[in-house]
Amino acid sequence: MFPAKAAANINGNAHTALTVTNGRVKGVIGAIVNNSSRIGKEEQVAMEMAVQDFNSYTNQTLVIHIRNSQGKPVTAALAAMDLISVQNAQAIIGPQTWEEVSVVAQVCTEKHIPLLSLADSAPGFSSKRWPFLLAASPNQLYAQMQAIAAIVESWEWTQVTAIYEDIDSSATGVIPHLSDALKEKGVEIVDFIALPPFASSTLSKELRRLQEGQCRVFVVHLSVPMAVSLFETAKKMNMMEEGYVWITTDPFTSLLHSTDAFTLVSIQGILGVKRYFPENGSHFKDFSEKFRKSFTLKYPEEENSRPGIHALQAYEAAWAVCTAMKESKNGRVELLEKILLSYFHNQTAVPRVFQIVNVRERSFKELGFWSNEFGFQETIDQNSTHNSLMKESGQVFWPGETYNIPKGWTLPTTLRIGVPTSSLFKQYVNVEDDPWKNETTFSGIAIELFREIVNEVPFDLPYKFYPFNGTYTDLVRQIHLKNFDAAVGDIAITATRCKYAEFTPPYTESGLVMVVPFQPKSHHKEWFFIKPFTKALWILIAAITIYNGFVVWLIERHHCSEPPKSPLNQTGTLLCFSFTTLVSVQGSILHSNLSRMIMVIWLFVALIITQTYTANLASILTGQNLEPMISSVESLQKNNAKVGHSNASFVSKYLVDVLHFKPKNMKGYTSPDAYARDLKNGDIAAIFLEVPVANLFLAIYCKRFTIAGPTYKVGGYGFAFPRGSQLLPSITEALLNISESGKLQNIEKRVLGSEHCVEADSNDEISSLRARSFFELFVLTGATSTFALILYVTHYKWKTDQSDRHGILHKAIWKLMFVVTNQWRQHRRASIEDSNRKIEVGNANMGIGNNIEVLA
């Protein structure tokens, strides 16, 4: 709409627009309509009525000249030139379409003639480009599209198809507004059908394409003739049956009052949105009665003479121009301002309020209203109940003569599901041909998981698997080309593939890793030789060794023929004697049977301890002697090494584009055995696998290879569906339910359980044997020594004299026995508390016979 202050800046020195004759004002008004359309007919009758009523009411003499544009912009421009140059029109009203308005506005601007447009919309730049252009109606396209979006949201439909006339006003005005309004509600336009004017030959082809798709919600923005042709064709193709949703915009809905009975039969169940205007007031009733008479006389071929909003709008526009011409005295600029003020002062239509109607039987029912301010309401009164959702306002009569709410989408008769045949790891996808039965079988984790999903969804989902021999990206592309309805398999989710389809959440761990062979380590940690035993066990061995040596020394000291030595020398002899018992047999120099008993038991325990130490040390050295041959991608690139990848996966592109490998240093494979063979032979230095199959590969070849380097973040495995698929939310929900319930883990265990391999853990803490592993042996040797010590002390007590030396010695012996006894009691109590934690000793009895012979 052109503002009044902008009009004041235009040169106002042109000649006066009105002439005065005998005190009466005489002026000429021009109008351009399309008499071949119902809107044009209503507008012509209404404007003629307005000028006639104005002249009668004000005693003026104004003339209106109406020209027929036939809906053609060129004809409209020629009509404008004729009205201005020949008929001396001081203002022009119309035309009705923006394509005609744009050319007429150019003519009027050049001649400085006000143009009051009857078009539904005008672009934002129109007021600057054509300062003499005024819009008879404020642009309500976006508000109207918001009303349609609110209807779609009410029934929880997530996709629609837009059908519109292939003209500039629709392509640049309506469709962008519709798309924006739907996006705000989380709704996507999955298809755009632009129909050329009068191109009825393409209707069947376009509708057949829509019929083959899944979306069943259609928003129709067409003129009346094209809309009628569309619905008649749709009815013949059974697209006006149950399950379909048709929503029409104002250009068609506002003329439902003029539609014949035959057409109404073809459009049963459609929903329509139109601009609201009050029809209950006395003013409109008088206007309607007079209009019916005039319209019937002028166009007797029309079955229905009821006026619509276009007639009312044309009447008010003509009345506003007449008022402005009567009041204007200073020229065209003032006339422009008067038209602007007069029209919007008397405008009847209520902006941004839309009426929703539903066609049923041979008429249509008004379901209520929608506005930005109040949402849905049953009446236009302020006291009316407001609802955010239309389905709360009452029942709708849908196509197919049903009140059942359409779900807005449908499934193909049978889902065509593509399955890759080039999977390296058949545990995930295995496609086999049976020539005897002439059929193809499909198995693997992905196949079993999809079958579980089909059982989980709350509706029947017929499907059929089809083998696909090609790359995974080509498989996903087939969905975009509509050759498949979905793809199931070990399909990695990548950005490139998301351009062609949408994916479920990944059902496997995500990531890409590097698998390399093992190699011997070049060095070991310090003090590695103490790792077989824990520190506590080493201390206990030393303590029990010293204790046993002390007891034997104590018993055998009286049999020594050598003169008494100093305490320091005796201590050294004691320690030497204690530890040499671990590696040699001293039975030939022992004189007491008690000493021999202690030595036999201690020798048995020592053999077990030494052999266990030897076995565990060998195990640790073997495990710790291996490390990855390659530690990083950088080392591969630096050495110009060759790497392997799957021929069918996305990995080859990732290696080149992201990790910057040279194609000449890359080799594709079709089987895991070929991977393992070339890795072992050194033909390739590493392979790159997705995490799920890398774990499977290592489970099979666990003793030869390992994962090295970082994990690269790429998508896991998922199932692909068409972009915007209505089926995808249900599939995703079912997949999550299966995963959370543990069914997915059960499938993986059942398929991969036979491939699982557990390697020896080289963790230092786990490999080190603890003191409680030898608890019974230490109890045996300690108890034997203590028993021998008690017998010795008791037997020789009566032989002791009263000398201080012997008294002190006996006291020290008894004190030592008391301390040792208390220590063993505490150790046994701690061991009982930890009895539930058992650890295997492993290989403790290996080689006992050989060592006995050596020690003997």
Molecular structure report:
It is a single chain. With 856 residues, the chain is α/β, with parallel strands linked by helices. Helices cover 45% and strands 18% of the residues. It has 30 helices and 28 strands. It has a nine-stranded mixed β-sheet, sandwiched between helices. Strands 1, 2, 3, 4, 5 and 6 form a six-stranded mixed β-sheet that branches. Strands 22, 23, 24, 25, 26 and 27 form a six-stranded mixed β-sheet that branches. Helix 9 links the parallel strand 9 and strand 10. Helix 2 crosses helix 12. The longest helix is centred in the C-terminal third of the chain and has 32 residues. The N terminus and C terminus are likely disordered.
Principal-axis shape? elongated
Helix content: 40-55%
CATH architecture identity of the largest domain: 3-Layer(aba) Sandwich
Structural class: alpha/beta
Domains, number: 5
**Could you name the CATH topology of the largest domain?**
Rossmann fold
Query: How are the strands of the largest sheet arranged?
Result: 8-7-9-10-11-12-13-14-15
Q: What is the count of β-strands?
A: 28
Detail the poorly predicted runs: 1-23, 758-766, 801-805, 835-856
Outline the biggest β-sheet.
9 strands, mixed
Euclidean distance between termini CA atoms: 117 Å
pLDDT averaged residue by residue: 79
Count of alpha/pi helices: 30
